[in-house]
Here is the input.
Amino acid sequence: MFLSNLSGYENPLFPDIVIEEPFSSTIQTPMNLYRISFNPALFKISYQEDFVYYRVNSFDKINFYHRVYDPKRQRDYQLYFYTHKTLDKKSTLAAAVRYNRADQYDVYRSLEKSFYNNYFSYIDTTMGNVTYEGPQLWFLYNYSLTNNLLFGFQIDYGIERSLKDVYTKCETVIRNLDLKFGVGFGSNNSNFVAGAFVRYLNYQGQYNAVKELQDAFVRTYFGYHVFRDENPRSLNRKNDYKEGYEFGAQLTRKNILVDGLGIQLSGSYGTRYTDITVGSTSLPGDRGYWIREGYRIFGAVFYQPVESNFMFQLFYEYKDFSDWARAGEYNVVTIENDEVMHRFGSVLYLPLMNKVGVSTGFEMENIRSDYHEYIVEFDYNREHHNWNAFTDFKLAINQITNAHIKGMLGTVEPWFYWNTDKFDIIAFQYGFERLFVFGTLGLEFYYEVWGPENSDKNIETYGLSISYRK
Here is the structure.
């Protein structure tokens, strides 16, 4: 339910805003202000009932179609615990722990978990299997300074280690920290809420290629078309240091003109820099410096009448960021990228009968990319048009058992390094929950396929999840 809050390994400058409620939910509700802003001061207002949640996930992704440095197969396992509790009238505490394990098979050369998400990636000469594992911790504390003024603090912390099963000992260690401080104000009748937050990001990654009896040969990429062969040595290391900040504000207004009609607004500005060094442990050389900065605006209009399960919501998201990167030794700009995204969609929950409801949604996304590499001239200027639609049938089989069946269709136009102009996506999920004396148990099955244009090879994902909540 709250998996997106954990960002121990992946803490992007602007985290994704998830529109849909979890599949285990039998009633669709409008997005609350915490879900669209991640302001910890607004958590108490957004989640008022105590909650305990356990989940075990397993996903198997088979890349029949893949890029050069992608694994041919990846299996993910997750153990997850989450809880939040109102301690007293003024205090709310929330915490989560997640253990992750990812097994990547037949990885060609790459020493990166995701080669294509970096401008300065690291490869060697081997092909093998890689295991990534480690814990992630999430903690949030909310305190009411007065009846109307709120304060919140949130921390994400994660450690990940990996090892590639080849003669070159390819080891990775990542430490990630994500801090947020927020304040909020709520009116006495709860119809108006506003807040602001500040966020600090800190990431440290270390990539080692080690050979005991001979030298390790590695390459550092500058973008996606140019690389540098590093000096062979028994230990070659890449140090990846990231630091960033984000500032944001948000507000919501409920019961405008009529009961149940409301609006939500959220905006933030952020910047992050990345410093890359490569070489020996005693005297590494500068390889790259990368800065990303931009801002995001999100707005929504929703309608949910009092004491009714009917809900309708429209939303719009605008995101604008720019990158520039320079090669360390030459001190010249080697990469520039500007990206603008417009995202629009709607969600409708309609109770058909006492025991049946349907949740349906649609969203469109337009991304304009303007990417340039200068060492070897490469220009990429294109608009990407993506969309997806889903329908989720929710059925109360009896007083203690619920079930749902969900289907999704979509299209994604990827970047140039996928070597295809379009993916057609089909996904299906079936799940049910049963209430017991000790709590509610749930079981879900998931299947998704991405079909590239002009290819008979697909990317297929199978998933199984078991959950417990009370």
Remarks:
- The longest strand covers residues 122-144.
- The chain has one domain: 3-469.
- The two ends are 13 Å apart (CA to CA).
- Residues 3-469 form a domain with the Maltoporin; Chain A fold (CATH 2.40.170).
